[in-house]
Amino acid sequence: MTAYASPTAPFASPQEADAGALLTIDLSALVKNWHTLAGEAPEAECAAVIKADAYGIGLEPAASALSDAGCTTFFVAHLCEAERFRAVNSTATLYVLNGLLPGTAAHFAAIGARPVLGSREEIADWATYCAGIGKKLPAAIHIDTGMNRLGLRLESATKLVSEAGLMEAFTPSLVMSHLVSAETPGLPINAKQIKAFEAVRALFPGVPASLCNSSGIYLPERPHYDLLRPGYALYGGNPRPGRDNPMAPVVRLAARIIQIRTVPDAETVGYSGHWTAEGRRRIATVSLGYADGFLRSLSGTNLKPGGEAVVGGVRCPIAGRISMDLITLDISGLAEDAVKRGDFATFIGDGISLDEVGTRAGSIGYEILTSLGHRFARRYKGSDRQGQDPFI
Ligand SMILES: *Cc1c(COP(=O)(O)O)cnc(C)c1O
């Protein structure tokens, strides 16, 4: 069999001079946001959710910066992410949100990861494994209070606690649930979930409890309990949509202008001719596309505006379809000599927030973040470990 080189590690990124776009990740803003969130609930511990490559910013650098800042509990979604985390931190408490797949218990135990057990089968699986090795290993129990996705329903949880054989084989180290609509504080589902969680918590006396994601932390009920589980807000997303954002921006995306042209009146720009020049327009073609995770739904037509970028301090609309590797911007609002080939257009940053990009894309900032590609040059700043590669 031929041996192939293994794929490039996820944190490898091209040199700035060779890349079409520059993604700047401010790790000191990440740490600041963690402190801000922790400060909202001084009586609770603040964990960090670093699933999905730390929402796209890079699991290793995010985990290292937050560990250095004092964060000692982390959540990932998959066991493979837990494995990556352990390469940079061998001691922190580590939960795997997607729980225990059949046959993986020994791997969890080997790397000291704790599954978030969301069904009786998973609990039985973990209990059997623990009994087999004679160790009461820790695990979280996930209770479903309304999401109907993962977790035991209240009735099953009530039944479970009476099954001593199961519950005594391992150590429940956390009881948790997840909020459905925490970003909309007015909805009755929040109070309903909090009430259900209160009931279920009582079944597990002495076990630390956790309910809040980023937005949950800011709910008027302050259902903070023992452990906060923010993700999005750590990375600069607004946990209080529609109100001012208490978070510092972490991510900045700027791409290079590779050509500037004048388009005559009535000609179209880009695939399928979805944007027509109304009068003579100046168009900048930028080295960024949907292959970089810049969603195609940010394309702009004459009737339906799409995304925007800041060039020379001025907001410029995306003109026409976003292609795989290119975006065309209408820079007619700028003076002729204000911009030249090689300059940057900012797509996230300079007043364009993640949440704005998400809304313009008909999506959410979470998807913008987690879609960020790997063709950018990635520059990490604000870490003591600057220059140390790759954060191990
Ligand atoms: C992703 C996730 C979080 C973090 O949510 P944010 O809205 O990003 O703060 C917390 N808890 C669970 C169970 C999750 O899946």
Automatic annotation (TrEMBL):
GO terms for molecular function: alanine racemase activity; pyridoxal phosphate binding. The modification N6-(pyridoxal phosphate)lysine is found at K51. Substrate binds at R149, M324. HAMAP family: Ala_racemase. The active site is at K51 (proton acceptor), Y271 (proton acceptor). It comes from the Bacteria. Pathway: Amino-acid biosynthesis; D-alanine biosynthesis; D-alanine from L-alanine: step 1/1. The keyword Ligase does not apply. Keywords: Isomerase, Pyridoxal phosphate. Its EC number is 5.1.1.1. It is an enzyme of class 5 (isomerase). Its cofactor is pyridoxal 5'-phosphate. Belongs to the alanine racemase family. GO terms for biological process: D-alanine biosynthetic process. SUPFAM superfamilies: Alanine racemase C-terminal domain-like, PLP-binding barrel. This is Alanine racemase. It catalyses: L-alanine = D-alanine. GO terms for cellular component: cytosol. The keyword Isomerase applies. Residues 250-381 form the Alanine racemase C-terminal domain. Pfam families: Ala_racemase_C, Ala_racemase_N. Catalyzes the interconversion of L-alanine and D-alanine. May also act on other amino acids. InterPro entries: Ala_racemase, Ala_racemase/Decarboxylase_C, Ala_racemase_C, Ala_racemase_N, Ala_racemase_pyridoxalP-BS, PLP-binding_barrel.
